[in-house]
Known about the structure:
By secondary structure, the chain is of the alpha/beta class. The protein has 13 helices and 29 strands. The protein folds into three domains: 4-246, Rossmann fold; 263-381, Luciferase, domain 3, CATH 2.30.38.10; 386-485, ANL, C-terminal domain (GMP Synthetase, Chain A, domain 3), CATH 3.30.300. 27% of the residues lie in helices and 26% in strands.
Amino acid sequence: MEPISLSRILAFWAERQPDAAAITHEARTLTWAEFEARTNRLARAYASRGVQADDFVTIALPNGLAFFEATFATWKLGATPQPVSARLPAAELGRLLEVGQPSLVVGVDAAAHPEANTLPADFEPEADFSDAPLPERTATSFKAMTSGGSTGRPKLIVSKLPAAWDPDLDYLNFGQCGAVLIPGPLYHNGPFSWAVIGLFKGNHVVVTTRFDAEQTLALIERHRIDTLYLVPTMMQRIWNLPAAVRTRHDLSSLRTAWHLAAPCPAWLKEHWIGWLGAEVIWELYGGTEGQGATTIRGDEWLEHRGSVGRPVDTCEMKIVDEDGRDLPPGEIGEVFMRPKAGPGTTYRYIGDTPRAIDGGWESIGDMGYLDADGYLYLTDRRADMILRGGANIYPAEVEAALDAFPGVRSSAVIGLPDAELGNTLHAIVDAPAGDVDEQALRAHMEQQLVTYKRPASYEFTTEPVRDDAGKVRRKALREARIAAQS
């Protein structure tokens, strides 16, 4: 099948399954016919407020039906959705608006952004707008995602893919007309992409307000979910449920469980493979920029334990040292990648420039190595690496050891300034029950890691240190603790 414009893709499915469920959030469900009609009216309301083809529409809405309606209404005008967190402080959102210059901002208080053309979160289109189909318009870019990166300066990552999709395309093991569960925040690239691609292929997409471990299992059973989006933080919280709770739900409908966005500890992945089956567990590594990616299924992972897979057919990868020289298999360096279609074919930045070397190779800041068979193994982010006494320490390795201790939900390891060593390791440990004994944890770490990789100090909290997308803002954590010390 030829790709269908995203301005027409809801109509395509509404004609084939008008009364089937398209989206469910909490207790509300929209059928395909309802979704098509409501977004036609909303698109006309956006057009009346100045949105034109290839404009950006900033969507500052929480997870819910309104988020999807705003996204598809934007596509129906040939414009590009640009999702952001609904909880961004006004100053931070203001900096993003300066970068993106959207023609409309949905979900914000007009008084907080008098410089912008805004609509409130509870906006409903005027009743006299028609719900009839609109003319077909295809945006040059189907999404523009935001990132602060390691510098904290906002940037947009604008896809070079046009707003069109082939529903028959075999992509990421998605089925057609099945059921997809998204328990992550939709303003992040992974949950956004998995959700909308699920819809492009006619699936019933179920989205939660926020992640809850037991609710996730209950929704899989209730809606017969066949495709699930996860990050390792979610996997750990589910695994930490009492066994009787974790095993009481029927998960037999689950065909594919994807995890991505952060490193997954090997012990945790092994538990999930043993629980759900190796053929169900899939992992993807790649950036929003789309220059390259790897994928690996559980059975392949068992033969290459710790790997994130081999590069997909559309890209190539290599490992480079600090002087830009290619490294042989087994040596750790920075991961560079490029699309086979050529540099600059997958995205463009607004507000930043790529980290690139000769030949069109680009890096998204990850460190790792390739083995002799071409499988990629990640160690950590280049910006997160901690230099202690001349030794490079990768926080992800230390955090994986911490997270394996009973009672630990998640952790973050940062470097704090030290006059002698340059940095010492400080562990922020999320222990929701508040019953983790520091001495027992230290003894556990002695069994897991060499001396220089063990944290010198510990801080315990009952608040998550990672968000529902599995992300941790180490830079902000470090700055806050340095400020407190001084």
